[in-house]
Amino acid sequence: MEARGESSEFNGTVRSFFETGCEGVMWVFIEDGKHGYAAIHDIEDGDMLSIYNEDGSVAFEGKIVSDWEIGYAEYPMNPGHGQPTALGYWIHWTQKGWTPDDWARLFIREDGKQLRARYTRKKLR
């Protein structure tokens, strides 16, 4: 078990994740060498993330700062309530300074190829 306050750095890929009870698409990091739920890291505020395009150039690099408001839409069948959307999906948040669709395209790929990434978790979960 890692000590509180220590960083843990991982290599892997990023993707979208959804299952019953998530109430929208989540942005996750999938750790190399692990499988199933053990490989999944929910990306959260304060984490550091680098995402690389297929050519190795940096698509995103920085500290995660969630914007929970941008892209907000009301639920069609429940006026007065809603959540952010991107690429036609209900989502939880967008990285501050990004548009919801541009951020989502890093995780939801039309070609199905997941982008490589490096993830640093700053806090014990």
Describe the 3D structure.
- The chain is mostly beta strands and 125 residues long.
- It has one domain (8-121).
- The protein is 4% helix and 45% strand.
- The chain has one helix at residues 100-104; strands spanning 8-17, 26-31, 40-42, 48-52, 58-63, 66-67, 72-75, 78-86, 89-90, 94-95, 115-121.
- Strands 3-2-1-11-4-5 form a 6-stranded antiparallel sheet, with no helix packed on it. The protein has a 3-stranded antiparallel sheet with strand order 7-8-9. It has a two-stranded antiparallel ribbon with strand order 6-10.
- A hairpin with an 8-residue loop joins strand 1 and strand 2.
- The N and C termini lie close together (11 Å).
- The model has no long low-confidence stretch (mean pLDDT 92).
How is the secondary structure organized here?
Elements: E1 8-17, E2 26-31, E3 40-42, E4 48-52, E5 58-63, E6 66-67, E7 72-75, E8 78-86, E9 89-90, E10 94-95, H1 100-104, E11 115-121
> What sequence of helices (H) and strands (E) makes up the elements?
EEEEEEEEEEHE
Uncertain segments are none
Mean pLDDT, to the nearest integer, reads 92
* Largest sheet: number of strands, sense, barrel closure: 6 strands, antiparallel
Rg result: 15 Å
Which range does the strand content fall in? 35-45%
What is the overall shape?
A: globular
Distance between the termini: 11 Å
List how many beta strands DSSP finds. 11
Task: State the secondary-structure class.
Answer: mainly beta
Helix content: under 10%
Tally of individual domains: 1
For the largest sheet, list the strands in their spatial order: 3-2-1-11-4-5
Task: Count helical runs.
Answer: 1
